[in-house]
Amino acid sequence: MSLLAFGINHKTAPVEIRERVAFQPGQIAHALKDLVAQPAVNEAAIISTCNRTELYCGLERNDLNMIINWMREYHKLGERDIQPYIYAHPDHDAVRHVLRVASGLDSMVLGEPQILGQMKDAYFAANQAGTLGGLLDRLFQHTFAVAKQVRTDTQIGASPVSVAFAAVSLAKQIFSDLSNHTALLIGAGETIELAARHLHESGIGRMIIANRTIERAHNLASEFNAYAISLPDIPGHLAEADIVISSTASPLPILGKGSVESALKIRKHKPILMIDIAVPRDIESEVGDLDDVYLYTVDDMQEIIQEGLRSRQEAAEQAEEIIDTQVSHFMNWLRSLGAVSTICAVRQKAQSSCDAELNRALALLASGKQPEEVLKLFAHRLTNKLIHTPSVQLKQAGYEGRNEIFDAARAIFDIKDSEL
Question: Do 298 and 186 fall within a single domain?
């Protein structure tokens, strides 16, 4: 059996192509069953995200054209629609690819952790659909263990590489325990949503979300057990906030020096971390002159992000070394499967000889022969039967000059040079 990892991703195809080959969650089970119904496909799993659609297959024989045709026909696409964008990794390269994907090394954002959860979803979907066999099951289990090792042994996911992550990382550096603090998030776009998610996962004590459209603020707040307010309500809540993260599309500043000064008086000059990641800025630059305010702009965040990227790239080099080792381990296991049938045949042949001699020995005992004599005869005859064929083959190998057979025999029977 051979392995194949096949698909397209954000590196090979634009979003309009990726959309056309994506599998919706409700399609996955049907698609998997249809795929394994194809000739030579023994098992399969599908991962489909906004950035990639990939098929992982255990094949009776490596038939890439059959997989491509299935993909085209399933999504009703022409050959030219996907041919320029696809990639295919067989066997050893397939294992490497799957391990790199799960470890975040093939992601748009280097080291992002979400892909591992998406791969686990793909595994469970294939398992539930009944399309997961021993080969892919072992590959996925190995993959999850390797991804965990990469996360544990490297800093691949530790450094911030997005504005939202950088903002929350900065907050965690200044306030070591976020559970005792309140964050005010201004805006309700993608960046603020990500910041809210990171804060929630980091155990923030309380969140207030302010937005021009109160309904949007309520929708986002309900997801994270936060409190929603409108922009005009900000002055009444600003004093509660230890952390302020703002990202709106407002053409004019939302927070001025005067309103922040008033909040600081109410707070008895307890410091506030303010992160303005809006362009144009949401917080007047003069706010940064206040003694009890730590104000950071989007430019400051970019410096943190660049440092984070450098750190992740160094970690990625360490991760690649781990993956090199683990690919070898998996391929060694895969090669060992070829020995299973031979081992079974050898054991069966030995057992057959043993059974025959045991029946002979039992018959001799029943006829009144002495047990000691019967046991000696049994051991002698069984030993002769077990080594007869190997002895004949070794003699023939010597006659033909096939010295590699002797090396193999010494390895199989663990014969040391001192025993020759």
Answer: yes
Give SS3 for 185.
strand
Residues whose CB is less than 8 angstroms from the CB of residue 288 and which lie 6 or more positions away in sequence, other chains included: 295
Task: Give me the CATH number covering residue 25.
Answer: 3.30.460.30
CA dist 115 and 51 (Å) reads 10
CB burial of residue 107 (10 Å; 0-12, 13-18, 19+): buried
Distance between CA atoms of residues 290 and 268, nearest Å: 13
263: in domain: yes
By the 8 A CB rule, do 238 and 287 touch? no
Number of domains forming the structure of the chain: 3
Please tell me whether residue 50 adopts helix, strand or coil conformation. Answer: coil
Annotated active-site residue 50? The verdict is yes
**Predicted structure pTM score:** 0.68
The Cα-based distances of 245 to 5, 91, 140, 177, 212 in angstroms read: 42, 47, 39, 17, 15
The CB density around residue 10, as the number of other CB atoms within 10 Å, is: 15
Return the residue matching tokens 């296991």.
333
CA distance 45 to 57: 7
Are 234 and 302 in a shared domain? yes
Q: Do residues 21 and 40 share a domain?
A: yes
Selecting among 50, 57, 344, 354, the annotated active-site residue is 50
Which run of H or of E encompasses 273? strand 272-276
Within a domain: residue 312?
Answer: no
Same domain flag for 178 and 111: no
pLDDT in tens, 171-208: 998 998 999 999 999 999 888 999 999 999 999 999 99
Least confident of 157-166, 336-345, 374-383: 336-345
* Tens-place pLDDT, residues 361-382: 999 999 999 999 999 999 999 9
DSSP codes, 358-391: HHHHHHHHHTT--HHHHHHHHHHHHHHHHHHHHH
**Is there a domain that residue 420 lies in?**
no
Domain that holds residue 390: 341-415
- Number of H helices and E strands in the chain, helices first, is 15, 10
∠ CA 146-152-153, nearest 5°, is 85
Burial 217-244 (b: 16+ CB within 10 A, else e): bbebbeebebbbbebeebeeebbebbbb
Residue 152 neighbours by CB distance under 10 Å: 9
